[in-house]
Design a protein that fits this description.
SelA_trans; seven-stranded mixed beta sheet; binds pyridoxal-5'-phosphate; about 450 residues; 17 strands; four-stranded antiparallel beta sheet; Aspartate Aminotransferase, domain 2
């Protein structure tokens, strides 16, 4: 490595001539920050950690530990390690399952299970016999134990994949009978009817947007019918003059009834009376239930297929099942979610409004003592696109000036709040109480960024 002229003693013990004084040549922060590697890191990590690395690199140069022209290299080396561009954030939006923030956060048990499964693992090997074993057998056993009403279960990559597999394996070249009020767009422009038709199945639409009867379904059943599909309108509600038959009204039609419940509730949830669950649908006679793993179930992204043994067998042996199979990390996280204590999603749903208010008041009092314009306010959270449209969950938020929103998002601990009536609200419903200290720190940093900018 090139040795540079440290501010070592000259003949007289003084540093080299004034021109060699490294302090004079240390590049300014804004110049160093133009380095493409640091620009990229600022994008990934936010400006805070990158500036702090640059300041430490400049300090080293001032101390003579590195040459001034190595400040950028040194700052790059000092960046906090982060192997991926995905940054952990605090979800203070008040949307419990926020698709843009990765939906359900994994429980501590699920995170440990992912960590343990990350290396070589016995995902397809029976260690006692040394013989190949069924992939995901323990996760599937946990799923069966959680939903005894399901005779069999299969796992795929997400809820959409569960529908694609069911339509491909059971209905390609045949008809799926579906009510007109259940032709759903799930988000980001993806529409379930398009997805189903892409498998080679034909849709036979029955009824009207607001009203569909069991007789409408019965009239449409014929030799080409593969199954009746019921889709839960999980992100919208039609109210007023409406009717749709339940699963129990359709089982007498003589064709399998497949129910896409969407959210992955395995059993009824008292706070969400209108949200369908796997147990109730299977008990009512559904042949197959499909659902997502990362919505109300509170687990990793995956798709659940639960139901009749013959149908699950057909699905799991179809070539497409191989293309949609889940990886070992998902299997580990799902099993830990199913067998572990309450998930962060469950805890957020069940959080007591009085407790949320107490947390908000405590945080607001401490931050106000630091001179921050903050107060605790009542706030309504929602479950999110993952389910229970129309349900509001009373709780509490920190209310800050609107300009905090951007500073909080771009801080070293990014916090995503929501804007409401000209204020930045940090809703505590989906923030675990254990994160209150980090949240307070982030608000303080955002306040400091702002005052520094105003100076
Ligand atoms: C969310 C949802 C899907 C899609 O599930 P992903 O896991 O996002 O693929 C399908 N159907 C319904 C009713 C849903 O709510």
């Amino acid at each position: 490595m090139e040795q540079w002229a440290a501010p070592g003693p000259g003949v007289d013990g003084a540093p080299h001539g004034a021109g060699a004084d490294p302090r004079r040549r240390i590049p300014r922060t804004d110049a160093v920050l133009r380095d493409p590697r640091l620009l990229n890191a600022a994008h990934r990590l936010g400006p805070g950690p990158v500036k702090s690395a640059v300041h430490r690199a400049q300090q080293r140069a001032r101390e003579g530990a590195v040459p001034p022209d190595a400040v950028a290299d040194t700052a790059v080396a000092l960046l906090p390690p982060s192997a991926s561009g995905l940054r952990p954030v605090i979800n203070a939006t008040g949307v419990v399952l926020h698709t843009n923030l990765g939906r359900a956060p994994l429980s501590a048990a699920a995170r440990r299970a992912v960590q343990d499964a990350a290396g070589p693992t016995d995902v397809e090997l029976d260690l006692r016999t040394g013989v190949r074993a069924r992939r995901g057998r323990t996760a599937l056993a946990a799923l069966r134990a959680a939903v005894p009403a399901a005779a069999a279960a299969h796992l795929v990559n997400n809820g959409a994949a569960a529908l694609v597999l069911a339509a491909t394996a059971l209905a390609a070249g045949r008809e799926i009978v579906i009510g007109r009020g259940e032709l759903v767009e799930i988000g980001d422009g993806f529409r379930l009817p398009d997805l189903l038709v892409s498998t080679g199945a034909r849709l036979r639409e029955v009824g009207t947007t607001n009203r569909t009867t069991a007789a409408d379904y019965a009239d449409a059943i014929g030799p080409a019918t593969a199954f009746v599909l019921k889709v839960h309108p999980s992100n919208f509600r039609i109210t007023g003059f409406t009717h749709a038959p339940g699963v129990g009204d359709l089982t007498a039609l003589g064709v399998p009834v497949v129910v896409d419940i969407g959210s992955g509730l395995l059993a009824p949830h008292p706070l969400l009376p209108d949200e369908p669950d796997a147990r109730t649908q299977l008990t009512a006679g559904a042949a197959l239930v499909t659902a997502s793993g990362d919505k109300l179930l509170g687990g990793p992204q995956c798709g659940l297929l639960l139901g009749r043994e013959d149908l699950i067998g057909t699905l799991s042996r179809h070539p497409l099942a191989r293309a949609l199979r889940v990886d070992k990390l998902t299997l580990a996280a799902l099993e830990a979610t199913l067998t572990g204590p309450a998930t962060p999603t469950g805890e957020a749903l069940d959080a007591d409004p009085a407790h949320l208010r107490h947390r908000a008041e405590r945080l607001a009092a401490r931050l106000a003592a630091d001179g921050i314009d903050v107060r605790a306010v009542a706030s309504s959270a929602t479950v999110g696109g993952g389910g229970a449209p129309g349900v509001t969950l009373a709780g509490a938020a920190l209310s800050l000036p609107e300009r905090y929103a951007a500073a909080l998002r771009t801080g070293s601990v990014p916090v995503v709040g929501r804007l409401e009536a000209g204020r930045c609200l940090l809703d505590l419903r989906a923030v675990p109480a254990a994160d209150d200290e980090r949240l307070a720190g982030a608000v303080r940093s955002a306040g400091a960024v702002r005052s520094a900018g105003e100076r």
